[in-house]
Amino acid sequence: MLNMVFLTNSWLSSFNQPGLCISVAVLLHYFLLAAFTWMCLESVHFYLALVKVFNVYVPKYILKCCIAGWGIPAIVISIVLIINKDSYGNGSYSESNPFSNFCWIQENIVFYISVVAYVFIIFLMNTAMFITVLLQINSIKSRTQKRSRIWKR
Fold it and tell me: CA 102, CA 46: separation in Å to the nearest integer?
């Protein structure tokens, strides 16, 4: 959906309808945040599968992942819309080309908080999960090598 909205964004912004442009910008923002949220949930799942292998039963795990994956971005978008719905709009980059218009976040502070900071937090979390998984794999490898040396003796 992120790709579909992104690819049709310029065409839809050419209609010069403020409501349509706000809707497209909100959808683009939502699906971008949802994609990164699901990426974060994948890293949590990776951690649970490779580090916390045993006794990791989470009741209604998929339902909780779906609520987080689709709900957290919806909360962020709702907050932005509640604070100021005019944060979204039509931005033009060139007067000569009508398809250079793009519906997106118009205020820099909203962009930096709701996109850049959000992605940065997810990047930090994914990096922490990745390092933890690598350390776990390395410790399993070293234990296996010690056992094989003992068996060879």
Answer: 36
Asked if 43 and 117 touch (Cβ cutoff 8 Å), the reply is no
- Closest residue by Cα to residue 19 from 138, 123, 125, 103: 103
What is d(CA 135, CA 4) in angstroms, rounded to the nearest whole number?
A: 38
Cβ atoms within 10 Å, residue 2: 16
CB-based contact 89:4 (threshold 8 Å)? no
What gap in Å lies between CA 101 and CA 60, rounded to an integer?
43
SS3 assignment, position 103: strand
Residue-range domain boundaries for the chain: 1-87+105-151
Tell me whether residue 129 is exposed, middle or buried, using C-beta atoms within 10 angstroms of its C-beta: 0 to 12, 13 to 18, 19 or more.
buried
Say whether 138 sits in a helix, a strand or coil: helix
Q: Dump pLDDT digits (tens) for 26-59.
A: 999 999 999 999 999 999 998 888 888 777 788 9
Whole-angstrom Cα distance, residue 107 to residue 110? 5
- Whole-prediction pTM: 0.85
